[in-house]
Amino acid sequence: MFDFDALAACMSTSACLVNQATSGLIIGMLLFLVASGVTLIFGVLHVINFAHGSFYMIGAYFAYTTYHITGNYFLAALVGAVGAGICGILFERLIISRVYGQNLLMQLLVCYAFILIVDDLVKIIWGAEYLAMGIPAEFRLPPLRFAGGFVPPFYLFLVAVSVFIGIGSLLLVTKTRFGKIVRAAALNAPMVSALGIRVNVYFALLFGFGCALAGVAGALAAPVRSLTPGMGLGILVESFIVTVIGGMGSIPGAFLAAIILGLTRSIGSVGFPLFVDGAMFMIMALVLIFRPTGLLGQGAVR
Amino acid sequence: MKKSYTRPRRGIDRRTVLKGAAAAAAVTTGITGFPAYLKAANTPIKIGVPTILSGRVAILGESSVAAIKNEIRKINEAGGIEGRTLEAVVRDSRGKPDEAARMTRDLVNNEGCDIILDAEASGASFAVNEVVRDMKQFCIHTNSETSSLTADPKNQVDWVFRSCRQGIHDAVGGGLVAAKVVKEKGLKKWATISPDYAYGRANTEEFMEYVKLFAPETEVITETWPKLFQPDYTENVTALLNAQPEVVYSCLWGGDLVAFFDQASLYGLFDQFTAFAVNLGDYPVLTAIKSRPAGVYSGSRYHKDIPDTAENEAWYESFMANSNVLPTNWSWQNAAAVNFVVEALKKTGGDTDSMKLAEATSGLTIDSPFGVDGTLTIREDDHTLVNYMVGYSKTIVDEPYVVDFDQTAWSEIYKHEAEWKKRNGYM
How would CATH label the architecture of B45-165+307-386? Predict the structure, then answer.
């Protein structure tokens, strides 16, 4: 099961190190975008959005269609994000806000129903077969070479955008008026409301922003991953692992955990290819045992 | 001057009524005395089809049903079988064995299906096989490529047949072509990337077994096993890059293969290695891959130019005109199954009795656009399909997507299949 010789051989060559380190970053960054939405929504609204994967899927399909109509990938990514964000606001206002404060099982049930409905809608609109967007013309370039390793230009773009959005989200929540109101409302909604602020609007906007992050991830993944109804479920599981390891509610925690998981996958595929998924869950178990609030999580576990 | 003549109106007299009644009674008595299958002269012959119409494999099930319906349409338009039309009754099992088994029983018991075309993938096919064995119901498996379904005597049933590819046939064909290519190019170091479940493991093992047999200097230096439906293959692609093999084999399929090709192209993988992908040659896959690389060896699935005959071209045109999905490997297999059913029904004179149909199907050879010399045969001794197109093509970027089909001779396949059966204790 373990191939430590291959791992040692890999660690001793720069080409392999570059390949595996960048591949860890690439896998990690998409996870981070999805997980940061989950963690943001949980941190403020104390709702675990089990339907988050559906917004990743919505973002991917919206981007696919926009790219086909306009041929402009950057516009497609934007439409994917905004589209997922608007769907998120509608989902929050019409559905999930009705089960705020209710037991977890009810929230889970509502989210699962939403997942099934959205999957079927996607099947009706786009069909059941897999779709592929293809690499946008701007990025159809040969891979760059660093120290013998290969780095595709599209992935450089993907990582840069993810880091940029991650920092932006953090600043939005910690430094802006919007972030301050939302955080205050999370602590004491009636008080913020009494100050004349429409708390519900802020909650909906925040929920929409979280979903837009998933939408961006979907749009960034669309050129390289095949689009199918139900594609959100796989990334949802992994993003929950990231959220738990990083600490529920912590964006820097999600970033750290996503990189840890990405590197586990990429190094694991060389050193322990049969135990990659197992290793991810093992890390989660260890974190839960020794640091139940997650690596950078704060406060009591709900 | 023209005279107008009006016939006097008469009422129906007693004698006419009596004659009519007698005639009606005679006809009714006569019919009840006829054999059962003629009594049903006006009812359609129902063909039950359990298959997969949801999830990531839905496109294959849809293309199966499209093929079945198109063949049935042709038969019905030509007058049906002994005046009876054919009708397909389709059920979506979602590929789950227990659902497929339940639906097969339901199709026979409640829908009154006379024939079962099992259009399931391997997992559920084995379940259906046991149901039709138990029910003594005539059945043709149309999609399961797992060799043991018909090769292993434990799974053989007198009234059950298979009308599709068999893994071992493709393994021999693939091994022969691959060995020829690597010998010509002097390549020895192989890597494999296949999905991590029963089919992926068994298929890759069989393929490499025959490559090693025909090119003994072959060495597999790395294997990477992504999960089924894994969205991201970056770690597997970089694992291949790090190992630096000379040749890569993959039995990834469907959307997984599309994603792998698009991701691997980012790393220029296909510029660096020779690649073999057994499931690449299906239209939905070839058209979905946006960065289609040239020069990849692709296994034979369904292609309008393979075989390059007017009959195959005509079949393709007819399918495209009557379907909203592209034809797949599953399409031709199901079309062939309907053709076998029709020929068997003609031999039994429209009788749908399972044992009579089985007798008519065993060893049956039909004219077919998918056969090597225009014919397909369901072999008598193991009830499986032979003489279909086996071999590898090379991809090109634009239509017709694959060229240079290297066809494997069936004499070679028979020889190695017999040895394989002996090795596995099947004969």
Answer: 3-Layer(aba) Sandwich (3.40)
